[in-house]
Specification:
A hairpin with a 2-residue loop joins β10 and β11. Helices cover 41% and strands 21% of the residues. It contains 7 helices and 14 strands. It has a 5-stranded mixed β-sheet with strand order 4-11-10-8-12, covered by helices on one side. The chain has a 3-stranded antiparallel β-sheet with strand order 1-6-14. A two-stranded antiparallel sheet has the order 2-3. It has one domain.
Length: 240
């Protein structure tokens, strides 16, 4: 769908006025209402088709990254639910409709990070998973995050200030599992690095981070009070 400029609107109004000349007003109203309904249905069908293809492409990505079949099947079982939930959802331009998330309780960070790629570089981590504590309540089984903002909106903000802004927007801060999923299914790391603002280190004032080290994706720690112009905190509207 495209938005008309003022000149285009004037041309359209002039053409419609000529088309509707000598017709009863009720007939004009009925015709316009029917046309709007047909356009709405067509647009909805196109959106459903696009979202279905988007879902399928995510499953193919997981297959190509050697994700266990049982996990992919768990996501596939949610396909209709996910599409029904998001098809009528309004979200800002540039946001990602949905992303499948594999909880680290299923594969662990040592199993998840190799699924992140940057060219021929494979993701890795030396982080101790026992030191991660999540401040967000997340599903225990494979789930989806919806209306995902990839962190561009918080570039240059510290994890602390970004977290406050995200909460004011009534959105949810990401944990490492969700940032790993974002990095698996998008090229976000080619633009900026990610602070997993929804989690912290149990033994120090640190936040998990997904970033590029020597062009290789890595998950490790960073300080909560620093800021970088090329680092941001991603968020989502909901989880299910």
């Amino acid at each position: 769908m495209k938005k008309l400029c003022e000149d285009q609107k004037k041309v359209l109004i002039k053409a419609l006025a000529a088309l509707f000349n000598d017709l009863f007003l009720q007939d004009i109203d009925d015709a316009v209402a029917q046309a709007k309904t047909e356009i709405s249905v067509k647009t909805l069908e196109d959106r459903k088709r696009f979202l279905g293809e988007f879902f399928d492409s995510q499953m193919k990505t997981l297959e190509s990254r050697d994700c266990p079949g049982a996990i992919i099947e768990a996501f596939q079982a949610k396909r209709d639910e996910v599409l029904s939930k998001v098809v009528a959802m309004e979200m800002p331009e540039g946001h990602i409709p949905f992303i499948p998330v594999i909880p680290r309780s299923y594969l662990g960070i040592y199993g998840l990070m190799p699924m992140v790629r940057n060219g021929d570089k494979v993701g890795f981590t030396y982080l101790n998973p026992n030191e991660i504590t999540d401040n967000e309540k997340t599903p225990k089984s494979p789930y989806f995050i919806y209306d995902v903002e990839d962190g561009i909106g918080t570039l240059g903000k510290t994890p602390e200030s970004a977290g406050q802004l995200i909460k004011k927007q009534d959105r949810l801060c990401h944990i490492p599992d969700e940032d790993i999923a974002l990095a698996i299914h998008t090229s976000v790391l080619s633009h900026h690095c990610l602070w997993s603002t929804g989690s912290r280190c149990k033994v120090a004032d640190l936040v998990p981070s997904v970033y590029l080290y020597d062009d290789g994706p890595e998950l490790y720690w960073d300080y909560t009070v620093i800021s970088h112009n090329e680092w941001g905190s991603a968020s989502c509207r909901s989880r299910a």
